[in-house]
Amino acid sequence: MIKYCDLKKINDRYEPQLTEAITRGAQSGWYIRGKECEEFEKNFAAYCGCKHCIGTGNGLDALTIILKAYCEMGIMQPGDEVIVPANTYIATILSIIQSGLKPILCEPDRESCNIDPALIEKAITVRTRAIMPVHLYGRVAPMDEINAIADRHSLKVIEDSAQAHGALYHGKRTGSLGDAAAFSFYPGKNLGALGDGGAITTNDTALAQTARAIANYGSHTKYIHIYKGVNSRLDEIQAAALSVKLQHLDTDNERRREIAHKYLCEIKNPLVTLPLADSEENHVYHIFAIRTAQRDKLQQHLLEQGIETLIHYPVPPHRQNALCEHSHLSLPITESIHAEVLSLPCHQAMNDDEVKKIVDAVNSFKP
Ligand SMILES: *Cc1c(COP(=O)(O)O)cnc(C)c1O
User: Fold this and answer.
1) 216 C-alpha vs ligand 1 centroid, how far in Å?
2) Residue 79: exposure state from Cβ atoms within 10 A (0-12, 13-18, ≥19)
């Protein structure tokens, strides 16, 4: 059986350094807001090409804390609008709601599956304060167009970079392409911790200071609380593990691209639409999503051949009970993507035989 994401195999690649780092964290006697986190924040900021990095408890919190910080800074007010792609993981949208802001769902481009810049401008109102593009599946959103719209309308641009650690855009990394960015280190992400973790990156010093305080109970100084903060910090053991894995991120992403290129060249089944190829490393293939009208049958066929696949995502956010206030929206592109996508295994610990087996299995599918 080829697992969709084999975290055991993935993390075994970093031994013995990973176990050494965890042991160092465990035996240090200092578990939160210490040297390991500081060191990782410094290195991840440098990696992204940003001045600041703030570790958080997870990716959802990273997104939410950015927005709460803008609210505390007076840049956003309750009820202000944030434009967000309609086809994303629900976390992106929840962060907006949990900050007291209003998500405005925008259809994606059918080919890239990323937010369609042509539709963003139509969604702007007097209440719009920000655009929150998602680098979905690991492909960088069209940031030049998005930043140009944001400039014209004085909006903030907040990257949801949870799926795109290390992806490049004109030579710059995600995390440095807007005003602020949020990362998730959920174990299955391209840079994954051994539990939950997240980070904010930004070049905006005032935002960084506010966000750091909000993540720490609204406090810069112990027992002095200036904001209604939250408790969301990257702990020392996760930070130590991430420091080890960060050193391998570029090689890991390169291997994902290599596998993706094999799929792109060798999958030849008229029933299957392949994703657009990457250019200039603007895709780190967190997810390799193919599309087919026969999605459920193809998934069954692959399972019978010993290949596990997943669907990202089976139900779009506006069709979730949790977001029923958006259920009236007509988002046909988002819905058709959700009905057709199927994610093939694509990660750094896969070998060439597994890749070939998957190619052959997709090519042999007929309804
Ligand atoms: C994983 C993910 C998140 C949330 O990250 P968590 O660490 O699970 O909170 C947010 N946005 C997107 C697009 C994601 O894929």
Assistant:
1) 20
2) exposed
CA distance 126 to 56: 32
- Phi (first) and psi of residue 41, to 5 degrees: -60, -45
Of the candidates 350, 346, 338, which has an alpha carbon nearest to the alpha carbon of residue 89?
A: 338
Residue type at 96 in one-letter notation: I
- Separate counts of helices (H) and strands (E) for the chain: 13, 13
Span 7-50, pLDDT tens digits: 999 999 999 999 999 999 999 999 999 999 999 999 999 999 99
Please state, in angstroms and rounded to a whole number, the distance separating the CA atoms of residues 171 and 173. 7
Q: Are the CB atoms for 302 and 361 separated by under 8 Å?
A: yes
Q: 134 CB less than 6 Å from ligand 1? A: yes
Q: How far is it, in rounded angstroms, from Cα 297 to Cα 309?
A: 12
Question: Which residue type is seen at 306?
Answer: G
Q: How, if at all, do strands 219-221 and 224-225 pair?
A: antiparallel
Per-position DSSP letters for 301-333, written without gaps between them:
HHHHTTB--B-S-SS-GGGSGGGGGGTT---HH
CA atoms of 336 and 272, how far apart (whole Å)? 14
Mutate which of 184, 185, 189, 200 for ligand 1 pocket (most atoms within 8 A of beta carbon):
184
In the DSSP assignment, the letter for residue 59 is H
Are 240 and 38 in contact by the 8 Å Cβ rule? The answer is: no
- Tokens representing residue 112 in the block: 């890239």
Q: Is the CB of 58 under 6 A from ligand 1?
A: yes
Token code pair at residue 235 = 């702990």
Tell me the three state secondary structure of residue 110.
Answer: coil
Q: What is the pTM of this model?
A: 0.98
